[in-house]
Amino acid sequence: MTVDIKNVLVCDAVDSACVELLQKNGINVAYKLKLPVDELCKEVKNYDAAIVRSDTKITQQVLEAGAGSLKVVGRAGAGVDNIDVPAATKNKVIVLNTPGGNSISACELTCIAIGTLARPVVPAVQSMKEGRWDRKLYSGSELYGKTLAVLGLGRIGREVAIRMKAWGMRIIGYDPITTEEEAKAAGIEKMTLDEIWPLADYITVHTPLIPATRNLVSAEALAKCKKGVKVVNVARGGIVDEQAVLDALESGQCGGAAFDVYPEEPPKSEVTKKLIQHPKVVATPHLGASTAEAQVRVAVEVAEQFIALTGKSQVYT
Ligand code: NAD
Ligand code: MLT
């Protein structure tokens, strides 16, 4: 199957490598970032394809506005949560993504988050900038010998496991699809969730947000954990129950948490805002894929898939 792609609308800030590659291959590109929804609905009619990251929402309304012209939506990233895939299918629009391009970056941010929960580097740096010298306040704990639970043993979960094992952590994990052998190859002891909760010193989630994973780390789960368990979410807002973590931080059941993703972005709810302000929380604004390397990779991958769809051989220079 080939698709005639002549004009592409780039809706979010993707690396220029994407635009350059498309143009070299004879595809016209318009760069119109963060259009309000009514303008996006007007614009989308003029294009065969659109490229987004996570800011622009490709809703049913947008897809219906593009009906008859829009044939492909490309996501320069892994999750397609911001694209209404059933509505796209109904409107005969192909949805494609670049699932592996930013895995290492998301994995590395996760490892950094785990490190900042073990050693309070963030508040210590702030204290130095404020002219203080508080050595006693910022003592931490070693990761060596601690147990890390990885929930979701796909691309990112396994990379996190491999790296944190090198720090001397015991890695346990849960995934309904990944086999015990695949888990073992990444140094992970596969277990049930009920076996995991009481063993974990740290929990990190790496699943998509689907009904089965919403509130995977819940109040009930946290209550079954060791006192002081630490939680990391660099996957999708909603996989970790934010209210449950907030309550557990207050009671001391949770010893710290790191979030890169939120149920609404930018965060709006009072719960998320309280969590971000909590002294034991390290919060970053969805930076998992924000590295030079990942952005070039996803940009090139999305462009290459568009060119492949046209059925023409790719021009590189
Ligand atoms: P992946 O598809 O490779 O792996 C996901 C794994 O989750 C799969 O192995 C799957 O079997 C497992 N899973 C599904 N349901 C589960 C359940 N109920 N319990 C436990 N595991 C379950 O995905 P990935 O590329 O590793 O990405 C993981 C997450 O990270 C996604 O949500 C993705 O959108 C997110 N992500 C975030 C950033 C960021 O910037 N913060 C960057 C890249 C990816
Ligand atoms: C993804 O799904 O790839 C990430 O969340 C990163 C991004 O939104 O760019």
Automatic annotation (TrEMBL):
Keyword Transmembrane among UniProt keywords: no
Source organism, top-level taxon: Eukaryota
UniProt GO MF annotations: NAD binding; phosphoglycerate dehydrogenase activity
Pfam families the record matches: 2-Hacid_dh, 2-Hacid_dh_C
Cross-referenced InterPro entries: D-isomer_2_OHA_DH_cat_dom, D-isomer_DH_CS1, D-isomer_DH_NAD-bd, NAD(P)-bd_dom_sf
Residue intervals of the D-isomer specific 2-hydroxyacid dehydrogenase NAD-binding domain: 116-288
Domain D-isomer specific 2-hydroxyacid dehydrogenase catalytic: 8-309
Keywords noted in UniProt: Acetylation, NAD, Oxidoreductase, Phosphoprotein
Family membership noted in the UniProt record: Belongs to the D-isomer specific 2-hydroxyacid dehydrogenase family.
Oligomer status and interactors: Homotetramer.
Protein name: D-isomer specific 2-hydroxyacid dehydrogenase
Classification of source organism: Eukaryota, Metazoa, Ecdysozoa, Arthropoda, Hexapoda
